[in-house]
Amino acid sequence: MLSRTKQYLRKNGYFYKKEYIRPLLTPDNIYIFRFGRDRLDNRLIIRYSHKWTGRQRINEIDLRLHKQKHPRIFQTESELLQYLEGHLLKHEAKVRAREAKAKQEHQVPDGASK
User: Fold this and answer.
1) How far is the first Cα of the chain from the last one, in angstroms, to the nearest whole number?
2) Nearest C-alpha neighbor of 74 from the set 51, 46, 49, 55
3) Phi/psi at 34 (nearest 5 deg)?
4) Is the distance from CB of 83 to CB of 74 less than 8 angstroms?
5) Looking at residue 57, what is its pLDDT?
6) pLDDT tens over the chain, length 114 residues
7) Cα(60)–Cα(46) distance, rounded to whole angstroms?
8) Closest CA to 71 of 49, 46, 98, 35
9) CA 56 to CA 62: how far, in whole Å?
10) Are 26 and 14 in contact (CB under 8 A)?
11) How far is CA 70 from the centre of its chain?
């Protein structure tokens, strides 16, 4: 499932971990992919069901980058890959810049006493 997405993540240096959940009250099955370069803080939630022939049908793909509150929702893997190619690297650079700025603010100047 989502083989093109896995290939894209591996090619760009992201690690991922896959979990499977079978909810009791809904007929959908759920896969959760956690991925990232240093920490697994991005998340893909894939809700899928099975057709009568046994093939898997993806109902919805939710993408949450760096613990977003409101996910991006996609219907197909192609839409997801198109979004990732355009936004993932930009978003990663923005988060790294924020972390570097916060780290810089917490450092004490050389001449100051503690």
Assistant:
1) 54
2) 46
3) -105, 130
4) yes
5) 87
6) 678 888 988 898 888 898 988 777 777 789 898 988 888 888 999 998 888 898 888 889 999 887 778 889 999 989 999 988 888 778 778 877 888 888 887 775 665 555
7) 6
8) 46
9) 17
10) no
11) 13
